[in-house]
Amino acid sequence: MRFMKYFLIIVVFLLAFATSYKLKKEVENEVTVNTNEKPNIVLIIADDVSWSDIAVNGHPNIKTPNLDKLAKDGMRFNEAFLTTSSCSPSRTSIISGLYPHNTDAEQLSWPLPEGKHTFVQQLKNAGYWTGLAGKYHLGDPVRDDFDALLEMQWKDAPIGLDRRLVGDGSGCDEWIKLLKSRPKGKPFFTWLASFDAHRPFYENISDTPYKPEDAVIPPYIPKTEAVKKDFALYYDEITRMDDYIGKVIAELDQQGVTDNTLVLFISDNGRAFPRDKTTLYDGGIKTPWIVKWPSKIESGRISNHLVSSVDIASTFMSIAGLKPLEEFDGKDISPLLLGDPKVIHEEIYAEDHFHDFEDYTRAVRTQRYKYIKNFYPDLPNTPSADVLRDRSWKSMLEEHEAGRLNVAQKRCFEIPRPTEELFDIVVDPFELINLAQNKDYINVLNDMRARLKRIRKHTNDYLPTERTPDDFFRETGLPTKYRIRPRPSKAVYMKARKAGNVLTNPDFKE
After folding, report:
1. I want to staple 142 with a disulfide (CB 3.0 to 4.6 A). Which of 7, 138, 428, 490 is the partner?
2. How far apart are CA 57 and CA 45, in angstroms?
3. What does the pLDDT read at residue 452?
4. Tell me, what DSSP letter sits at residue 94?
5. How far is CA 449 from CA 353, 361, 362, 441, in A?
6. Is the pLDDT of residue 498 over 70?
7. To which CATH superfamily is domain 38-352 assigned?
8. For the chain, which residues make up each domain, given as ranges?
């Protein structure tokens, strides 16, 4: 009897152990499956929003509760930059993983040509369902990279787009529709592109609009009532976009895919104000950058590492289990997201090309210093044409004519510009004091010059042999005969130039 008792105990123990082991293996297998499941990727791109203009990055008055929560639940970067401060060149750089000068789409509204590979194309080939909703601005050859394309349909207008005629004008109207339409059972990538906060700004888009006294004006723009009003309207658009971002996060939660979905929020360039958009100052190229990926990224993290939008293509491919293309200029920063503290960038590189007006400027930015080389110093630092036609610039003109602008506020009118600019970002975050002629900084200047030279050589960046005529008059923001839409590709422009022709709009009227 005693033997049978012990025998039964041993049998029960073995059965319990076997059952436990089986359950353990099933759990392990389940975890393995979940771990190996390809993550979904959601890229959200704001239009013309600077790094400092969301609450979580320190703005005292702008309300962005959904972006604040995204940062709380994910990871926020304090030193994230774009490769350029111009709309379509920034987007084509992001999607192709190339610096703008290597995309053959470096000028505003040049399409990314056939033959340039994109990370979206690679994700699609690997089994991802891909979709875009909102602003497009990438060129016809890229359209096939998306299984679904809900482009914000708007009619180009030479003196300003009226977005109020397209949905609510935000460009975000169909974000949720796109997410709901995705096929189940496949990993997905979505490119959700806002038209907020692109000019022109409109009143009455918010039930609780910002007031002029809410405006935080940088020192290089005069604090007039018109400028304050302009900033308040800009803030309205940021908060409207933030509301749509909250709806996206809620939809991902509703679909039960939050844990395995990486969400990245950035802007294509800085705010559309003088000395911001279309410049290489931080107001133009420093971008908000927030990543959420619950299954991989610990919440509440903050990074001070330098990252660049040219890294997005390599990073997205890497986290999808794909090898980034060798042709990409960017680097895979996924180790940073997963907690590796190793420095990936010692500096970032940014460039400015034609955007409404001709320009050719390059910048290198380290953690502390910014070096800018103006290759066309004879041209003033004219803001984009939509800025010229709106409140802030008109107010600046009035102040300029009245002699009330300070030295920093006169910079947009300065001819010639300095060929070189050097700023200590730590002590001079608004880049007001040019140290390029300061003998105490000669070693820093030479180091930054060497960095620029090295990057230009490594990436085959060179000065064009000819300049592009302005699309608008710099005095009025009205179109010239050279403005053509849709804009022909770079190849068409180059062919015309070789034939000795300059393309003009046949329908142009003086």
Report:
1. 138
2. 17
3. 98
4. H
5. 20, 13, 11, 12
6. yes
7. Alkaline Phosphatase, subunit A (3.40.720.10)
8. 38-352, 361-498
